[in-house]
Structure formats: C-alpha cells, structure tokens
Amino acid sequence: MKPFGWLSPPHIKPTELIVNICLWLAGGMVLGIGVAWLALHLPVIRAWFIPGPAILVMIAALFISGLLLYCLFERFSTPLALFWLILMNLLTGLLFACIFSWAGIALALGVTGAMFAISAVIAHYAGSNISGGGYYLLMLLVGLSLTALVNIRLHNGPLEWIGCLVMVLLFGLTTAGSSSRIQISARELYMKQFTTVQACAIHGALRVWLNIASLVFELLRLASYVIDGIRSR
Fold first, then answer.
1. What is the pLDDT of residue 9?
2. DSSP-assigned states of every residue in 111-163
3. Which pTM does this prediction carry?
4. Residue 81 — pLDDT band, cuts 50, 70, 90?
C-alpha cells in the first residue's frame, strides 16, 4: 500500500484511510465480544459481574474515559490513541456483559463489526468510484440489511432488533458524520508528524468514539436543561 497517495492531488478519495478505519472499528467490535464472553463465561469473572454495583462501576469508568477522550483527544499521541481505542471497546464489552445476555451482545456487536468489515472490503475494491456520501449510505444499507437478515434467520424478538438497529445506526451515522473531520485531521497529522496511514486510521477510529462521547454529553446537557426547566415552573 502506498501511504497517503491521496494527499497529492488533494481531491483523490482517501480510500486506504477509510479501509483501515473500518477495520479498526470492526476489530474493536470483535474485542468487545471477546471481553463480554470472558466476563459471562469464566466463573471467577462472572461472579463479579452478576451484582448490580458492577453496572454502576462500568458506567462510571466508561463515562470518565469518554470525558478524558473529549477533553484531551487533540493531545493524544498514536500509542495513547491506540490504548484509548482499545480501552473504549473493552469497557463497552464489560458494560454490555453487565446488562445484556451473551446472545444479545454477540448479535449487536457482531452485526456492527460485520458492517464495518464489509464496508472495508467495498472501499478497497470500489476505491474512488464511490463518493463520500454514497459510501456511507451504502455502509448503513449494509448494516441494516445484516440486521434484517440475521434477526429474521434467528427469529429474534423486538429487543434484539432494537439492539442491532441502535448499534448500527449509532456507529454508522457517527462514522459518516466524522468523515470530513477525519480527513482534515489526517492531513494535519501527516503534515505535522509525517506519520503513516495506520496512525491516522487509529486516530480516525478513535474520533468516531469521540463523537459518540460528545453525543452522550450533549444529550446529558439537554436532559439537565429540561429538568431545570421543569423544576423552575
């Protein structure tokens, strides 16, 4: 692979970057599934995850990690960005293990990971033939199609459908919304450090998590405004 062949001329679509970001995100979903499996199947770990307080611990850990990511993302070096990317997926897998069944976790994370893996293959072979908006629309269609096929095949109920749809839409739409900023950040990182495509892909995948954390914080802020407005009446 040629690193950053898309930088000159600048209008060439950064296909290689997109492929690697999708692969990092897909790998993160697999990591989350593996961690959840360990938490639910190893007796020593499973005993700790059954009590309710574990849910609060995981939520607090994920919230603090997201807050630090939100505040310090621009200062992250590539090794630290990789560590934080792994950490967010680990905490997500552990939190899901506290709340959902193994089948539900494998289904939601597996479908989302498959969406990213298939999208990486599409980007690799289609290259610049796919426009930015069209590519992310296709990514969402892949995710929604996988959701329908898997849930119909397994005869799942509404909860499984909702879980898959939420994960696919959350990560698919967030990735699409992050695309412009990811490309700009990759160019800035390249010019500043003359780094590799993989380094930029790690930062790009972590930016998807950053935007998810930002969305959560904005929803919490909106909720606080609504609650304050109700109390003031």
1. 36
2. HHHHHHHHHHHHHHHHGGGS-HHHHHHHHHHHHHHHHHHHHHHHT--HHHHHH
3. 0.85
4. very high
Helix axes 132-154 and 102-126, enclosed angle (nearest 10): 140
Peptide bond into 9 cis (omega under 30): yes
Sequence letter at residue 133: G
Q: Give the pLDDT of residue 196.
A: 73
CA distance 45 to 55: 14
- Which pair of tokens denotes residue 73? 């993302």
Q: Name the token pair of 123.
A: 């980007």
Choose among 184, 201, 172, 181: nearest CA to 17.
201
Q: How many CB atoms lie within 10 A of CB 134?
A: 11
Mean pLDDT for 47-68 is 79
Place of tokens 């479908």: 111
**Angle subtended by helix axes 102-126 and 158-193, to nearest 10:** 50
Greatest alpha-carbon pair distance for the chain in Å reads 62
Look up residue 131 and give its two tokens: 């426009």
Q: Which residue has 């574990």 as its token pair?
A: 54
Both structure tokens of 110: 């597996």
Both ends of the chain: CA-CA distance in Å?
Answer: 62
Confirm if 107 and 143 have CB atoms less than 8 A apart: no
Phi, psi of 194, rounded to the nearest 5 degrees: 50, 55
Q: How far, in Å, CA of 223 to CA of 220, rounded?
A: 5
